[in-house]
Design the sequence.
């Protein structure tokens, strides 16, 4: 698929897809006319990259870890890094869950106060 089609289907800008290629996160072939051509699996790869970025991983870290996603094989150092990132994400989820709970209580209190005023 062409870069515009991948951008539309993935919801990621053409500029971001080019950046992913520059960072060696995504690969394409070129048509005889020089246009980028992505395999169907690129969609899944872009979604994974987006998820990893959303989880706070840097492009450098993603570049280091993506090979084991593709091959299912990791060096001991890669495995250690995967575990570190997983644990960091888990801690972040706990922090966000706590913040969500606190905000829920604030909303309940504000709602109850507003009802009491009526």
Sequence:
């Amino acid at each position: 698929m062409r870069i515009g089609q991948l951008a539309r289907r993935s919801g990621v800008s053409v500029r971001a897809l080019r950046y992913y290629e520059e960072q060696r996160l995504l690969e394409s072939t070129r048509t005889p006319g020089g246009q980028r051509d992505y395999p169907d699996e690129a969609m899944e790869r872009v979604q994974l990259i987006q998820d990893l970025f959303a989880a706070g991983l840097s492009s450098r870290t993603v570049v280091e870890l993506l090979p084991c996603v593709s091959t299912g094989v990791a060096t001991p150092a890669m495995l250690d890094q995967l575990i570190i990132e997983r644990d960091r994400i888990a801690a972040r989820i706990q922090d966000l869950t706590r913040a969500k709970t606190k905000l829920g209580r604030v909303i309940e209190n504000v709602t109850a106060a507003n009802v009491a005023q009526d």
Remarks:
- The first helix runs from residue 3 to 10.
- The chain is about 70% helix and 5% strand.
- The beta strands are 29-30, 36-37.
